[in-house]
Design brief:
Helices cover about 75% and strands about 0% of the residues. By secondary structure, the chain is mainly α. The chain has one domain. The longest helix is centred in the C-terminal third of the chain and has 33 residues.
Length: about 180
């Protein structure tokens, strides 16, 4: 179609941040079922926060075809959900007097690098059962921090694209005016 103004978007499955949030969800599912009582309300809250982090990336990406505003809003909801989940993992460690690994912890840098690696992304499911609760929580914290960093950058890019291209109404108007000028 000549003068099409709606660009096919989506493609969220190829985003590195989406793949990380899938791992965060899987880790959270494993963690909550292994270390929390099934009647604990925190299980549902953590799973919903992890799910929201992943699902809102997908929904925002798909909505981006017709609404930059919705895309940005849902990407921010994904980030906020992951921030909520981060607090749950930190609370778990703190209330059980377990360590939150900061940059001074001897295993911090190695865990960070491992979580960025392709080998981790390919075999993460088999790693969970070999880790204790402190290690799993710190892995989740590391992954969430990586994802929220990427989401902040994604929101910045989405805003730049909106400023550059406008919203769908502006694109529709431009396409209609271009069509008229070519016919005219």
């Amino acid at each position: 179609m000549t003068g099409a103004f709606l660009q096919n978007k989506g493609g969220y499955r190829s985003l590195a941040v989406y793949r990380i949030t899938e791992i965060v969800y899987d880790l959270t599912y494993y963690f909550t079922h292994r270390f929390l009582d099934s009647h604990d309300r925190t299980v549902d809250q953590m799973l919903q926060a992890a799910r929201s982090g992943k699902q809102n990336i997908a929904e925002g990406s798909e909505a981006s075809t017709t609404s930059a505003e919705t895309e940005i809003k849902l990407t921010n909801v994904a980030k906020a959900s992951l921030e909520e989940l981060l607090l749950d993992y930190e609370d778990y460690l703190r209330t059980r007097r377990l360590k939150i690994w900061d940059s001074n912890h001897p295993r911090y840098a190695k865990l960070r690098e491992y979580c960025k690696s392709e080998s981790f992304r390919q075999q993460y499911g088999s790693v969970f059962s070999r880790l204790d609760e402190e290690e799993l929580c710190n892995m989740a914290i590391t992954l969430i921090n990586q994802a929220t960093y990427m989401l902040r950058r994604l929101i910045e890019r989405q805003q730049e694209m909106f400023l550059k291209n406008g919203g769908v109404r502006e694109q529709m108007t431009r396409a209609r005016l271009d069509y008229r000028n070519k016919k005219g």
